[in-house]
Structures are given as structure tokens and as C-alpha cells.
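Preliminary data (for renewal application), aspartic acid complex.
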Amino acid sequence: MKKVVKFGGSSLASAEQFKKVGAIIKSDESRVYVVPSAPGKRFSDDTKVTDMLLHVYETAKAGNDFTEEVKAIKARYDEIITGLEIKDFSLDKDFEEITKQLEDLTNPDPMCTLDYVASRGEFLNGKIMAAYLGFEFIDAAEVIFFNAEGNLNSYKTEKVLGERLSKAQHAVVPGFYGLGKDGKVKTFSRGGSDVTGSIVAQASRADVYENWTDVSGFLVADPRIVPDPKPIKYITYRELRELSYMGASVLHEDAIFPVRHCGIPINIRNTNAPEDAGTWIVESTCQKQDYVVTGIAGKKDFCTIFITKAMMNSEIGFGRKVLQAFEENDISFEHMPSGIDTMTIVVHADEFVHKEQRVISAIHRLAEPDSVEIESGLALIAVVGRGMKSASGTAGKLFSALAKEGINIKMIDQGSSELNIIIGVKNSDFDTAIKAIYNTFITDK
Ligand code: ADP
Ligand code: ASP
Ligand code: MG
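Predicted structure:
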């Protein structure tokens, strides 16, 4: 049995948290490869080290004095090193190097990049973790590679990382970054240590990828909206993808791809409650579900473009012409519910608002509709569950739950896979709608 364990920022924010992590790793000898994030928040108003690094980069780039900011970052690490009483270990040399790189930023053509600075959060935490555990440290820039388009080069990564890990009994590989095609450090998008963990699990052909965070698994709804939601025991990769895409931010939305490829399950666990079973993310399962709905997630701030034209349904090519107006303006659409003489396109507000008039005129030019109306302030909520396919009355229950709260449903879209129902409500109804759906399907089941 071989496990890859990834620990998120809050699990590594202080020496106290590091000790919990150390105990978790040492309690199971199959936990052989460790992927750490940068130190996260110690309390709710705290700043994540990654954010501190992004800020110091801006300060240095603007030519301002950054000494105090670097000191504050170093203090975060020194506090951990001291608290863990690691002997003969210091990051002084690393901070000298980082300072040198930041100084380079005022040169006309600096070598130092934003990604390099941001990646130091994980790099330094990885060094501490390796020294603390007595594991080998493997710099992710030597084993994880991106291609010229900036995407993961999975072929080269799997080969180089796989070979390197086959020679290391225990190792720490820092999360969040690798090496770009240009030979410089490159990071994934925010939260990307989850992706590194998945890559390490794939390359080492691990049996399990454990992802340790600050909640006892993937919860049915966002705990910041629903108080104390139930954890999900089993969720499929496909259900998870729907929920993470719609804003359930527990796991980076790209983190499932490397492990999914070779059928390695992900187990989400809580560093602060290691006895909890957490959530299993699997390809498929016949485990009985407690509820028809697996999870609820949503996002605010969408716009709708409502188009009418008499006899639209019989006009061949009408939909294509409308969508061309969005394509010409480089806007992707989220949903497209339609009727006989009407069609609605749902888009992200931040992609659309500054281009709205251009899109409207393109629709008129290309599709000659009778009218085009736009509305903003729409929130989308996804109700996801593999059990919905075989349960009748799910939609009815959902709609009556919202009606009881006086919430007007502005849009409905059921995926043809019957895995999810997406509803649109006003931004201001978002939290109430999620709570009402949770109560209907989970609390009052
Ligand atoms: P880490 O730093 O360990 O990577 P994240 O902050 O990225 O952790 O993800 C965990 C957080 O995700 C939780 O603390 C919680 O606030 C939030 N979250 C949002 N939706 C959900 C959900 N459905 N289930 C669990 N946590 C959720
Ligand atoms: N430290 C990075 C971030 O804050 C990556 C991660 O935590 O996964 O986004
Ligand atoms: Mg995360």
C-alpha cells in the first residue's frame, strides 16, 4: 500500500499544525510521499504566505523598499522552524537568494518572475517539512514540466517524476509549481497544490491520494452558507467536477484529471479531526447513498441575454448565428435554455459586461431577432446527484422548496446526463435558496 498525502495551507500554517501533520504521516507507514502547500491562515484575518509573496513582488517591481515585507514572510517560517525545534536547519540562505531575485526586478530585463516568487511559499515549506520528517526533498521544478502553451506536460512529468520517486523511499515534493518550457518556474492557478498531489499520486502509481484540509471531507453544501453541513461519504469524479466547477472550492477543479486517468481514489480528510473518515472521490461506486442529492454548489454574478424572434424554432441556423455573436467577442457561454420563439444565453458577468453593446449589435447583425434584452445579477445553483436519475419527483421537490421561501426561479437547465439540475435565481436569493434546497433534501429527508 502506497499513499500520497497533500496538506493544504491551513494544515501547515503554524508549528502546532505541522505537529499534527507529522503525527498523521508517522501513524501510517504507507504515507510515503508528501505534498505541502505554503503556510495559510492561522486565524480568519491572517494573510496566506502566498498572498504576502504576491504583494512583495509588486512592491519590489514598483522599485519600493521591500525589506520589511520579506522580514514578515521570513518570520512566518522562523516561527515554524523554532516551534518544531528542527536542529541545524535554517532558511537564511534561501531568503538571501529570494532578496537577490527581488532586487533584480528593477533591472530593465529581470530574470525574476511573479511565478518564481509565488512558488517560494511551497518551496520553503517543503524544505521545512523534509527536514522535520527526515524525508528527501525533491524540488518540483526538477520533476514537473509545462509545455509551451503553459499546460502540464504529462508525458515528460510522469517519466521524470516516476523515475525519481522510484528511487526515493520517502519524499517531499512541494505543491503549486513546476518548470515552464522557458526554463523558468511556473505555477498552477491558485489552489494548485491539489493538482501537484494528484500528479505525484499518478507518477508513483499510489493506491490512494489523501488530500488533507480543514473540513471533514467534501460537504453537501458550502459550510459558509449552511451551518454544519453533512459530509459526503462517496462522490464520483463526475459529480465532483460539476460541484467544483460551480464553486465548491475544496479541491482544485483540475486535480481529478491525473488520478482519474489511472483510477486512483482521492480521500479528503481533516487534519484537525484525523479520526473522521472524510470523503472518497471515486470513478464509480455501488455504495448506498444516504440522500438523492450528493451536493449543492453555486456561483453568483451571471447575466442573461434573452432573445425573441417569431418562428425562431423553424429558422435553420438561428442558434448558430446567435452563438457566433458571442464567439466573435471571445465570450464563452454557460447555459442556453430555449423555447419556441425565445432563447436565453447565460454568461459570466465579468466576461460580458464590458462587451455588452458589441454583443447586442452582433446578434442583430447576424440573427435579426425581434428583441434582445439583458439582465444581470443572476446566481446559478447546481444540484448534483448520481441518484437523481433513478429517483422520481426530484425537480418537483426542488421547486416547491424554493416556492415555499418565495424565491422566483429565473432559469432551469437539466443536464442530459440527469446528473445535475441547474437553476438560476436572483443574487440576493442565493444563500436562502441553497439553505432551502439543503433542508429539503438532507435535513427533512
Ligand atoms: P486547503 O487550504 O486545505 O487547500 P481550501 O481552503 O482550498 O483548503 O478548501 C477547504 C475550504 O473549502 C473549507 O474550509 C470550506 O470553507 C470551503 N468549502 C467550500 N465549499 C465546500 C464544500 N462543499 N465542502 C467543504 N468545504 C467547502
Ligand atoms: N499556496 C497556493 C495558494 O494559496 C497554492 C495552494 O495552496 O494550493 O493558492
Ligand atoms: Mg485548496
